[in-house]
Amino acid sequence: MTELSSSIRIQAHRANIERYRKLLAGRLTRVEREYVMRRIAEERAGLRRLEDGADDRPAPPWCAGNPLAEREQRNAAAMTPGVRATLIRIQQRVVEHYNRLLRQNMSDQERSAIREKLARAESVLSELLTDRIAA
I want to staple 118 with a disulfide (CB 3.0 to 4.6 A). Which of 24, 36, 76, 98 is the partner? Predict the structure, then answer.
């Protein structure tokens, strides 16, 4: 991974952690609080991996085939509209971030990994938007 893309990803993780911390300052249900805290932990783990120079990130819980996917889907359905809207905006920024990374100079292997992450991020965004329409 190039130093520039690593630096951008580190900044993105830090920005996401800060946004999630702001969410925690508001009124959340237990389910919402658990979800946001889990996302903070995932972002911190990703940040640590990048800072340590390793990026063999485990698949997030919303990936296909993961037994936690149904629980995540139920949690998303239980969110208040304000929290869901915030999570949608955050996920949109994640998608924009991966699209920016794809425009940079990188190896085919890095590009393939970013495309996979972009597909997952778009899938999560789609689920959040579908849940919002259904709610």
Answer: 98
Burial bucket for residue 121 (CB in 10 Å: 0-12, 13-18, 19+): buried
What span, in angstroms and rounded, lies between the C-alpha atoms of 76 and 101? 27
Specify whether domain 3-134 bears CATH 3.40.50.
no
Closest listed residue to residue 2, CA positions, set 53, 67, 62 = 53
- pLDDT tens for residues 2-57? 566 677 788 888 888 998 988 888 888 888 888 888 898 888 888 888 887 755 44
And the tokens for 89?
A: 């905006």
Which pairs with CB-CB distance under 8 Å and at least 24 residues apart come from 108-111? 110/1, 110/2, 110/5
Domain edges within the chain: 3-134
Q: Would you state the structure tokens that stand for residue 88, as one six-digit string?
A: 């949608």
Phi, psi of 67 (to 5 degrees): -65, -15
Contact 115, 99 (CB under 8 A): no
User: How far is it, in rounded angstroms, from Cα 102 to Cα 96?
Assistant: 10
- pTM for the model stands at 0.43
Asked if 45 contacts 68 with a C-beta cutoff of 8 angstroms, the reply is no
